[in-house]
């Protein structure tokens, strides 16, 4: 019960609920004002204009929000006017409808925000079929009032941003902390458990993708804040929390070790890994609690259990050495020590987040230069060339746009042929649930039908209990508010609430409410069936054939990240910014690969060709970036020795192997300059360096010098990590090149 109350409190304090209230206010005020003044007919187009342009109101910089709503307003006005003017001429209407559906849906090439503007445009086209205006003056007045509604919504949105300036940022930070905590807990399970490992690794992919999406939104929101006037102290606090969450995420990535080696060394000694596993779990739960505190503004949770768990993790290293003794215990002890170092750094970042949340003065200083910060923002191309580049059959968005146009024309023609009363409801269902991915379309269609049925049952029950118009109006508004609040979290219940809202809006106008409900359910089912069948049969875009470009991007990003790590080893001070930028791009590329793999798992089983091969490739990419991150993190956190010739030779060998895989996909040719024998010789020399350090340490122990100074420890750690991780990277790169070649031979040649 206590947990349910807490979740309810978090929901009402969330930016999602705030967005629902925003929409409710933007719709209710003009409706009430015009109704009270006796101009009810003017209220509907203004309310419609506000409703149509609400989707473009998403978290991000104020400039982009204003631009998206203004563009959306202009687009919805233009489309409404075109449809209303062409409606009397059926052949022209069908041509216009197909062209608008195609090109407006193609706007999604400009990114997520553009896809929301695109949705507003498609929604305006569909709703225009429900507007009964025929004269030129009536159409122009309708369109003008819709424009007023769009500007009114923009004003309401900006007013809410002034009243609650940090709501969206806090929500994004809270979501990021919560997801990072879940990710840390998942990694804890992977450390010792071999059961359901593949399933957990797939969960790992999904979490990574979600976290990277949140990071991108936060970069846009926080790094672009007040570029000219400077940041407020509160914004500095948010930025510090954000930077720490990024560091924690990267530490979790770098913490991924060779699980095969760990399983071999700790096969019958897993009790020494359990303290590290417990520490990860506790830190994960602590981050989740901090995510709640950020929204609830409650007292910070106690940190004592974390420090105690860290002590136990450190003690397990001593216990391990005590049982196995040196030199037999050295490799296992170094693994535990490296793991402990990652966890200690993670706890330091959690402490930094706590200090920022606790308003410690010293925590509000961020040294990130503005000119450096701007380089971490992802720039979006808005040139016409982007549309032209996608006007080809191998473009996923081109296929989706063409498929959507055909589905809508078919649905409208079907409605005309069978004289369906509200054909635009079928069209509405299609544009709401149809996505480029078949799997996502299928899932949304299920949720849409289920939600519509739930909403219809609830609406019928209320209609049978009362025929009070005031009750209908209140319920229509309340259900719409909650629908907008839930649409990102739970689409099924959002669909149910939208159904309730629409039924009561119609009931407010038309007393035959039960008839409205009946048609709503039938039309939703028809629209969902058309959308799913169209996605499956009309120029289907199966994810297995769409992976090529994503794989190319991941290979390029990983290669750049690897070479940036080499430069970092050579000169950490001068190359840290370039390294951080390369790391960010590599994580984003891997996130996109993970997202593509998630879409692949939603395709029909018969279309998931070479599933295990693709899973292997995604896993190899993921492990590769983790191994590089592990080396980079060690370099940034320790005073290292100069990069050796052998190190540079192996980096070049790995880079050339990745380039070879890339050449196979791009059908280019690059000469491999590092011979296999030379690379093996370089790796052997690095291993010998570690062995010499270990032997020297053993000699000191024999002489009675058991105390280990920090410099010797770091030298051993560096030699062990560099030699083992470079050998691991060589193996990973070779396997990735072979897998990429098989992908090309078994899938791309079949396409």
Automatic annotation (TrEMBL):
Which organism does this sequence originate in?
Psychroflexus sediminis
Report the domain of life of the source organism.
Bacteria
Keywords, sorted A to Z: Cell membrane, Membrane, Transmembrane, Transmembrane helix
Q: Which residues form the Integral membrane bound transporter domain?
A: 411-533
**Integral membrane protein YccS N-terminal domain ranges (all copies):** 75-323
Q: How is it placed in the membrane, per its record?
A: Multi-pass membrane protein
Q: Does the keyword Transmembrane helix apply?
A: yes
What are the GO cellular component annotations?
plasma membrane
Q: Does the keyword Membrane apply?
A: yes
Family, per the entry?
Answer: Belongs to the YccS/YhfK family.
TM stretches of this protein: 32-54, 66-83, 89-107, 137-164, 453-485, 491-509, 521-539
Name of the protein in its database record = Uncharacterized membrane protein YccC
* InterPro entries in alphabetical order: Memb_transporter_dom, YccS_N
Q: Where in the cell is it found?
A: Cell membrane
